[in-house]
Amino acid sequence: MTDTDRTGTLHAGFSSPDATAQPWSLVLETLAEAEVFWISTVRPDGQPHVTPLIAVWRDGALYFCTGGDEVKARNLAANPECVLTTGCNRMGSGFDVVVQGRAVSVTDEARLAVVAGDYESKYGWVFRVEDGRFVGASGNVAEVFEVRPVTVYGYGRGAQYSATSWRFSS
């Protein structure tokens, strides 16, 4: 998937009567500017696990990091399918984005260096890249994951409500 403009499908049953599909540019803006995301993974026993994290958008994918022994990392090792969400918590305005995809471990050090730069630019977090992972200032080691969207949903609120989806080849 590239970051070019795409046409979404409006879901009329979940939208105001005169609503139109939201533009892909709004999704890109939301993903780039969002500070907090929520990741949903599935535990080996089938129970859901949801937790907040920070992420960066680069080249058509979301990147996040987590300790290898954290629940989300263990869940992704067993089942890489996940959902990342972001948006706002106001009923009368805003735009929420839901990204469904597969979390893939990133170990390429050149790619990790670029993503580490994104984390520093966006959040002020500094990581060095070592042995295919991030290492923080305190010495904590984090695995890095890439999620390329398979399906994206955008939910607009305000004068009109809209539900728009975009599908991509997996």
Automatic annotation (TrEMBL):
Looking up InterPro entries in the UniProt record yields: F420H2_bilvrd_red/Heme_oxyg, Pyridox_Oxase_N, Split_barrel_FMN-bd
- Per its record, how is this protein called by name? Pyridoxamine 5'-phosphate oxidase
Q: Which UniProt keywords apply?
A: Oxidoreductase
Molecular functions (GO terms): coenzyme F420 binding; oxidoreductase activity, acting on the CH-CH group of donors
Organism of origin: Actinoalloteichus hymeniacidonis
User: Record keywords: Oxidoreductase included?
Assistant: yes
PANTHER family to which the protein is assigned, alphabetical: HEME OXYGENASE HI_0854-RELATED, PYRIDOXAMINE 5'-PHOSPHATE OXIDASE-RELATED FMN-BINDING
Pfam family of this protein, just one?
A: PNPOx_N
GO CC terms in record: cytosol
Where does the record place the Pyridoxamine 5'-phosphate oxidase N-terminal domain?
29-152
